[in-house]
Amino acid sequence: MARLKKIALFISVVTIVAFSTLKNNFPKSFVNVSEVIPNLKIEMRYATKHNFVGKRINGYYAENCYLTKEAAKALEKVSLELEENNLCLYIYDSYRPQKAVNHFVTWARDRKDTLMKNEFYPSVLKKNLFKKGYISSKSRHSSGSTIDLTLFSDETNSILDMGSAYDFFGEESAVMYEKITKKQQENRMLLQKVMKNNGFRSYSKEWWHFTLRYEPYRNQYFDFDIK
């Protein structure tokens, strides 16, 4: 009987500890970025059908943007700098549950499912998505300090033209791609500059992708849902 009481107490403690690590369905070390940056524009593509899969992605139940507190604080500095030029941040993705990454992997292995090919990967064979680095079994997004974004102009009430669409699988999305207009190049460089100045590093193949330097949970992959 004493042993059973100890086991019950242990289970109770574990449950309390597990519950205490969550706040509003996400860990206390994460924040909803909209609460940190009020003028944020958000279009969480994976919570909708408008993405390269063509379906809502597993783990995305709301268009909420979560990041580690450290990444959100750095992003707030980016936002304040942009405000001086009547610009703000437009978010496509931030923290990404591991189950969502698994969904991408399963989708990529189904060669027959090419519903969104014309829009997102017209020149890339689906069988080459892994080899070219567009799909992977792990993502920096799942560590909570990586974000996909662009810039939004308050003056024109539209996003800046970056020369390719978000999540476009092709060489056109590379940061230094040259076959775009001068203005598109300038827009990309503006985004690169303001993000790097505030502690983020970029990914050469995707102009929209940035990871916080010295991210707190590098190589840790969270799986809580976005609600």
Structural summary, described in words:
The protein has 5 helices and 10 strands. By secondary structure, it is an alpha+beta fold. Strands 4, 6, 7, 8, 9 and 10 form a 6-stranded mixed beta sheet that branches. It has a two-stranded antiparallel sheet with strand order 1-2. The N terminus is likely disordered.
Keywords:
227 residues; alpha+beta; Muramoyl-pentapeptide Carboxypeptidase, domain 2; six-stranded mixed beta sheet; two-stranded antiparallel sheet; 10 strands; globular
Which helices and strands appear, and what pairs or packs with what?
Elements: H1 2-20, E1 22-23, E2 26-27, E3 30-32, E4 41-42, E5 66-68, H2 69-83, E6 87-93, H3 98-109, H4 117-120, E7 146-153, E8 158-159, H5 182-197, E9 200-203, E10 206-212
Parallel strand pairs: 4-6
Antiparallel strand pairs: 1-2, 3-5, 6-7, 7-8, 7-10, 9-10
Summarize the structure.
With 227 residues, the protein is an alpha+beta fold. It is 29% helix and 18% strand.
The gross shape turns out to be globular
Query: Which structural category do the helix and sheet elements fall into?
Result: alpha+beta
- Could you report the average pLDDT, rounded to the nearest whole number? 91
SS elements, strand count: 10
Order of helices and strands: HEEEEEHEHHEEHEE
Number of helices: 5
Q: Please write the CATH class name.
A: Alpha Beta
